[in-house]
From TrEMBL:
Protein name: Uncharacterized protein
UniProt organism field: Rehmannia glutinosa (Chinese foxglove)
Organism lineage string: Eukaryota, Viridiplantae, Streptophyta, Embryophyta, Tracheophyta
UniProt cross-references to InterPro entries, sorted A to Z: LOR, LOR_sf, Tubby-like_C
PANTHER family to which the protein is assigned, alphabetical: PROTEIN LURP-ONE-RELATED 7 (PTHR31087:SF85), PTHR31087
Alphabetical keyword list: Membrane, Transmembrane, Transmembrane helix
Signal peptide segment: none
Keyword Transmembrane helix assigned: yes
């Protein structure tokens, strides 16, 4: 699974620069943690915002698009797309029921099912999820992850066994002249040993699914 970025989507008007694929600074064998920065971008006054992931130099990496359905019987919040910076769909994130999601490679073909996420705990100060990544019909090839934290505090940690895959944190500037950083902007740190950054981004989208501050 690829976590690399490419360019800038025509559908998203961004002032940020982009990084060509061959110059992406975080290779598969990276040895130190690296950060993405998550925020909500608005195209204009009164418009609904969309989530974007940028790197430490403000280059656009991923955006999140919500699909709208023409049928009133369909839930307009049940499908979200994780796009690379060219606008190509990396993952289709389908909420199949309350507390259950399916992630598909690309636009959501059943044969391209990549991960299954189920919420196992839902409390005001704590939520937990079980994640299965891998082939649908091959139990031996699946990887189990766990995701837990407190959405209100923008705190989320993803585990593989006892190892931390990624974690989020709010950003603060210290000192007398500290600058206020809004709560709809936070950092995602990905640690060495798990190279699919796009999968991590998809799980972060699921973690905050349904929160009005997001999408």
């Amino acid at each position: 699974m690829s976590g690399l970025i490419e360019g800038l989507p025509d559908a998203v008007e961004e002032e940020n620069s982009t990084i060509p694929l061959e110059e992406f600074p975080y290779p598969a064998n990276f040895r130190i943690p690296f950060d993405f920065f998550v925020s909500k971008k608005y195209k204009g006054l009164g418009t609904k915002g969309f989530i974007r992931f940028t790197d430490s130099t403000s280059n656009l990496v991923y955006t999140v698009q919500k699909l709208s359905h023409k049928s009133a019987a369909d839930d307009p919040h049940c499908i979200k797309l994780l796009l690379d910076s060219y606008g190509n769909t990396l993952f289709s994130i389908n909420r199949v029921s309350k507390g259950s999601w399916r992630g598909f490679r690309g636009n959501g073909e059943e044969k391209d099912l990549i991960f299954i996420v189920d919420k196992t705990l839902d409390e005001f100060k704590r939520t937990e999820f079980k994640i299965l990544v891998g082939a649908e019909n091959n139990e031996d090839s699946k990887t189990e992850l766990r995701m837990k934290g407190c959405p209100f505090k923008r705190a989320c940690t993803i585990y593989k066994g006892d190892s931390i895959v990624a974690e989020t944190s709010l950003m603060y500037k210290l000192g007398i002249g500290k600058i206020f950083v809004p709560r709809n902007r936070f950092r995602v740190t990905i640690f060495p040993g798990f190279v699919d950054a796009s999968l991590v981004a998809s799980l972060i989208v699921i973690y905050f699914d349904g929160r009005k501050l997001w999408i």
